[in-house]
Structures are given as C-alpha cells and as structure tokens.
Amino acid sequence: DDDDDDHDSDGHEAGGASSPPVRWELQAEAGKAWTRYDEATEKLILDAEAVGWTTLECRVKGQQYVIDLENLVQLAKKGGARRAIRRVPALEGKRSAGSVSPASPTKQAEKVAAA
Q1: How far apart are CA 111 and CA 115, in angstroms?
Q2: Helix (H, G, I), strand (E, B) or coil at 115
Q3: How far is residue 13's CA from residue 61's CA, in Å, rounded to a whole number?
C-alpha cells in the first residue's frame, strides 16, 4: 500500500514522471495545427476524465476556461471563444514544447471517437 502514494489511479508515477497513454490537444484556429496542452492542464483533464467528469474549469496563462470533455470544446469564460479539443494516443518522447494561449475561436468543435 505504501507504493500507491507514488502513483495515480492508472498506475502512472505521480508528478508527471511518466507519459499517460493519451494526450489532450487544442486547435487554436479551425483547420490549423493542433497543440498539446501544457503538463499541468493535461493532468487536470486526465484526472477529471478518470473520475468521470464531463466538464472542468481551469486557468491557463491567466485566462479562465471551461473544458467540455463530452462535446470536445474549450470555452473561454471571458469572451466566449470556442476551440476544438481532442484526445489522441500519446507517442513516447513527443511532448510538444507549445502551450495553450488565447487565439481566434473555432466555429465548430471537432468530435473525435473515443478510444
């Protein structure tokens, strides 16, 4: 039982030392490249998903967002910008240096089939 303190419910090491089997990405502009969420935000999303939450609120670079895991959108609480998000298989060693920052909203969320 003492070993459980160093691992989350999925058996990953606490503190993000190991890569999760999936990653979460954001599309800042419709039709443009996808950007992986920063580690802290991605951990919040993974934790919310693990306990069955369909929405969560978080702060990224000083902006407050609602992340809707059911409809695969991120909504800015101030201004209402909508951006598509997706859940994709993680590739070892492929963490993007990019982080989420406010940009133009997407017009429609892209739904991705659950793995």
Answers
A1: 12
A2: coil
A3: 26
Does the model's pTM come out above 0.90?
no
| Tens-place pLDDT, residues 75-105 | 999 999 999 999 999 875 444 444 443 332 3
- Percentages of the chain per state (helix, strand, coil), in multiples of 5: 15, 30, 50
Contacts by 5-13 with C-beta closer than 8 Å and gap 24+? 8/47, 8/50, 9/50, 10/50
| Dihedral sign, Cα of residue 14, residue 76, residue 86, residue 72 | positive
- Enter the tokens of residue 83: 């951006």
Helix then strand count (H, E) for the chain reads 1, 6
Judge whether 12 and 20 are in contact, CB under 8 Å: yes
